Amino acid sequence: MHSWVDGQPADTVPLKDRGLAYGDGLFETIAVKAGQPVLLDRHLQRLDEGCRRLALTVDQALIRHELLAYAAALGDGVLKLILTRGDSLRGYGINPGAPARRILQGSPPATYPEAHGSSGVRLFPCATRLSEQPLLAGLKHLNRLEQVLARAEWQDADHAEGLMLDMSGRVIEGVFSNLFLVRDGQLLTADLSRCGVAGVMRAELLSRAEALGIVTTVADISLAQLQQADEVFVCNSVYGIWPVLGCGPMSWSAGPLTRKLQGIVRALLGV
Amino acid sequence: MHSWVDGQPADTVPLKDRGLAYGDGLFETIAVKAGQPVLLDRHLQRLDEGCRRLALTVDQALIRHELLAYAAALGDGVLKLILTRGDSLRGYGINPGAPARRILQGSPPATYPEAHGSSGVRLFPCATRLSEQPLLAGLKHLNRLEQVLARAEWQDADHAEGLMLDMSGRVIEGVFSNLFLVRDGQLLTADLSRCGVAGVMRAELLSRAEALGIVTTVADISLAQLQQADEVFVCNSVYGIWPVLGCGPMSWSAGPLTRKLQGIVRALLGV
């Protein structure tokens, strides 16, 4: 399906776009099922928070309208929205109030092996660490060189994802996923106030778990805590949940809480 | 003058470009004087180092050839080169060995007030800190949201540049400049192994100072050291050198070593 730029079919952006020049923008990767964007409100909520923190000017109602229209035309697949701060000739200075450029791109449904969800995956222990920047932490912004470097650390098919720590050695997330630990029936996921991407599926799972009466904690996580977990899983808004079987010398098995949450997420994503 | 993409006149890049998607690339901003790119070898050297560290595949001879041809046509102005990792459908994974996309953009000579160089400038004390990421430190990569946020902290014309510290409070650089201190006739500039951009003019000045027998040190710099400096100046490869008169409550005056180096740089830039 053709991409849209500011509501019009287009395949390119101007060379002056600040997304290209500085990674000055945000993105969302949204699962689309039967013409509907899944977890749309959560995606828009994160986008709104990002626009506020980066002082990007957008018409949220217009974005919602375009996402719904594009998803309806896409049917089933993945919708990527990029917002950039539009054009700039030279220099970092911004033009306050100038409307952000809206880019919508569609692609077919993701084609991860079914076994990732049913059997589980291994994580590559990435040497690339996440730098700590509270001003950008949590946002899905366009400055993603750390993820590019981390993902380039392994090429084998034995690792479906990578584990990323921060500069202080705390366990943060996957390269394109958030990470959850289960211990004594409770859920634990990393505090993302210094680095990391606050995933939409992570937010949904935290909310669902709370509603189910499962104790959930958002806090710093050490490698020792990871090692001692009863269950570990990764999640994102496209593939849902993958149980984690191992990472380097550590190993776990897919347990009951992971399977329970997988059931919920599968219903959500229609997979 | 028309921009070039991979050697052909063009004004756009595909939406799938990884520079847009992830800031996955590098750039150089090069002064052009009488058809010649100034400090070309140093720009190419930094670019080469960046390509090596980001595993970007480029034909250095081809880039040099294009830069020389573009500069000759531009005459006087500023040439911006962006290298991106080309196109990508979805995901952070790279296609090793795929040639980088080469983007050349020309613009007229910079129009900073002449007084910035002759009288000096004030620096805005930016609250935005530089995060520490040794894997990216020193490179002029496309992940520049920290600079965008820092530059957005002031709008008044009283501040020509901003001062950026790292997360630990060390004095690092300007938003679009490097910073030098003079103390007892010696030069000091920040160690950029954790964060910051290793500017081409900074490298040239370090080399020139050494040739002149001026003791130069690259090390961590505290705010106290900055405050106690005899002279302070900022530099980049487009405007050359600006003496720094103050930053917040701190003040300095343009001194003899700053003026001496300004003379060298002016000859180099032909200004």
UniProtKB/TrEMBL annotation, chains A, B:
GO molecular function: 4-amino-4-deoxychorismate lyase activity; pyridoxal phosphate binding
Cofactor: pyridoxal 5'-phosphate
Highest taxon listed in the record's lineage: Bacteria
GO biological process, one term: folic acid biosynthetic process
Pfam families associated with the record: Aminotran_4 (PF01063)
Listed pathway(s): Cofactor biosynthesis; tetrahydrofolate biosynthesis; 4-aminobenzoate from chorismate: step 2/2
One term under GO cellular component: cytosol
Swiss-Prot/TrEMBL keywords: Folate biosynthesis, Lyase, Pyridoxal phosphate
Function: Involved in the biosynthesis of p-aminobenzoate (PABA), a precursor of tetrahydrofolate. Converts 4-amino-4-deoxychorismate into 4-aminobenzoate (PABA) and pyruvate.
Subunit structure and binding partners: Homodimer.
Protein name: Aminodeoxychorismate lyase
Annotated organism of origin: Pseudomonas brenneri
